Amino acid sequence: MKNEEEERVVMEEDDHQKASDLVHELVLRLLSQNPRTPNPDPTSPTFLKTLRFAHRILRSRLTPSVSPDASAIAESLKRRLATQGKSSDALAFADLYAKFASKTGPGSVNNKWSLLYLLRIVSEDNKLDSSLLLPNLNAAVSSSLGNKKTNGVLLVSKDPENLRDVAFREYANLIKEENEVTEEVLVRDVLYACQGIDGKYVKFNSEIDGYAVVDYINTPRATRTMVRTLSELGWLFKKVKSFISESMDEDVGTVGQAFCAALQDELSDYYKLLAVLEAQGMNPIPLVSESAGGSSSYLSLRRLSVWFAEPKVKMRLMAVLVDKCRVLRGGAMAGAIHLHAQHGDPLVHDFMMSLLRCVCSPLFEMVRSWVLEGELEDSFGEFFVVSHPVKVDLLWREGYNLHHGMLPSFISPSLAQRILRTGKSINFLRVCCDDHGWADAASEAAAASGTTTRRGGIGYGETDALEHLVAEAAKRIDKRLLDVLYERYKFKEHCLAIKRYLLLGQGDFVQYLMDIVGPKLSEPANNISSFELAGFLEAAVRASNAQYDDRDVLDRLKVKMMPHGSGDRGWDVFSLEYEARAPLDTVFTESVLSKYLRVFNFLWRLKRVEHALIGIWKTMKPNCITSNSFAKLQSSVKLQLLSALRRCQVLWNEMNHFVTNFQYYIMFEVLEVSWCNFAKEMEAAKDLDDLLAAHEKYLNSIVGKSLLGEESQTIRKSLFVLFELILRFRSHADRLYEGIYELQIRTKEPGRERNKTQDSSSSWISEGRKAITQRAGEFLQSMSQDMDSIAKEYTTSLDAFLSLLPLQQSVDLKFLFFRLDFTEFYSRLHSKGRES
């Protein structure tokens, strides 16, 4: 038993010696193929060092990445020889491998796959420079090595003494000798660079605009690339840090300050991470054997890349936001940051949400203060609601508006309009209406929406809560505003008063005013006193049912004399105006009252024409003229008189037909219908904007349908020509009947003595009966000619007016044409005129 053990030990020693000889010969051949060492010396220190290094590698536990299949490697070697054109070598290798694989038992190689793999690697590396395979084998060796060949086997050691780790440690020392800078130093410099500080070997390079390893040290390209990649974090840090420093020296506004504070908080977390990493960087980087079973609290470049993965994402995002927001402020800045929050990466999304909550807090505080208190706390012009210094009557229309450039994208335009209107309503109640009930409405709105009136009630990401708060506040505050206007300031009663007095809806008042003021208005405008007209107005009020109206309404009704020239009459300058006081002057602005004035002047002109026709009718009554009064006149004069009277009556009927139907159209189709629609919209209005829109629609409807719009200038001129002709007809009719009355009086007293002191040229009646008859005939003939001329002009103008009615856009005007030409009289007359 002992002899067998001794024999086994001898055999193992023999095998080990054979393997050492084979390795010695292999290293010698590899070095001899190097042109720099054609004859290596086996006894030189360099050769011995290389040999020891080869032994360590062979004894290590390093395994290739290919599958350990001897047949597959043999087949691969055979195919390679065949593809290289070495068919004979391929056949010889196949034969040798068959013998090698079949040999088993004592003296045979157990791990045949390892040997074949080694040969394959050696054959591949044989084509390269041996300095690439063994970089330290560059010393010259002598050629004193004999050609000793030893046959033996190659054994792979189990490495019981951790020789593999020793080899790695020596290899690491060799790498350190080649490189001038250790990895620990580079890690420390990278940490400095990430704080924006130049290290010993990693410095900021302005040419590449980034941190990099200095050129004068010998460092592998892979290491330089990794250092530059890691140092990108320092470049981003400098950009963010410089933005914060610059912003502290400028007035960036509250939103900008909140943005800088959020960035500073992120940088504080970043500083904490760097402190932890610097602490770990103090620990030396262990070798493979130490890291396998020792502590992991050390820092290498690769570990640093893992640590920096998440901070780099955040820092890149902050750098992008800094570049984007450098020239922005307020709501525009918040909107730009919000656009980057729409991201699918949960890390980016969570980071942006945290950042936006801080950034948007001043903006949401402005919204809360504006919606619930009506206060605009915007010293830096960051809010999307902008105020302007205006008069009280323009507070609603021009005092506040939206600045769309400051409207963040997470607030919709419709929501912004509601926010604007809610704050305007509070300020309107407080400034114009002197009302404080809005505070209770705001508190109720906050309670109904589940928020609080204190600061910080709503933040970013709570858009639904914001919309609910704005909706509740708008509903209650707008209702409060309308209630104050309707009940306290009697808006509806004032609108009705304007309709009754400015739009001439109070018939008895208008008729009495026309009767008493008519003679005075026929005088030149320069001779008329506004105080005298105000007395007539007061008399008309006392004589009509207007006296029972509210005194506040009657006190607002005043006479207004429009600017006039030397040739104007009272009819041209007289008008009524209605005084609008705060807060009603928000609705009845100067432009609105000017439209009412235009409508009043038009309706007053129409009433004057109607009044003129009524006056003619009173003069033309049949009991004023009897046929017995003209018994002594010649028959020819009688025929002329009857013809003139008949012509006057027919023309009056035509004019009265037109004026009656046109006035019916204005009073019922225009004024009453528009008022009914306005009353319905006034009841349905939910806020002051709806009320203003309804009133503007009501007034524009009246102006458009009354032919006072810009598009109705042509037909309006034609209508005014008809009015002038009717007034001319009134003047001629008065002259006719005055002459007839005088003739009637003179013919009843033919023998009465004339007053001799009277001028003979003062009356053509004084010349005797013959002269009376002659002058009567001439007068009637002249009046008949004038009547014919007026009738002809009237027919032509009326035809022109009727021809323009179908061309109007309003359906009501087309219906007016139907009413005026119900019997198609004018249509047939127009057709005959064209045929002739």
UniProtKB/TrEMBL annotation:
Coiled-coil stretches noted in the UniProt entry, renumbered to this chain: none
Subcellular location as annotated: Cytoplasm, Cytoskeleton
Pfam annotation, one family: GCP_C_terminal
Gene3D superfamilies noted in UniProt: Gamma-tubulin complex, C-terminal domain
Domain Gamma tubulin complex component protein N-terminal span(s) in chain numbering: 187-487
CC annotations in GO: microtubule; microtubule organizing center; spindle pole
Protein name in UniProt: Gamma-tubulin complex component
Organism in which the protein naturally occurs: Brassica campestris (Field mustard)
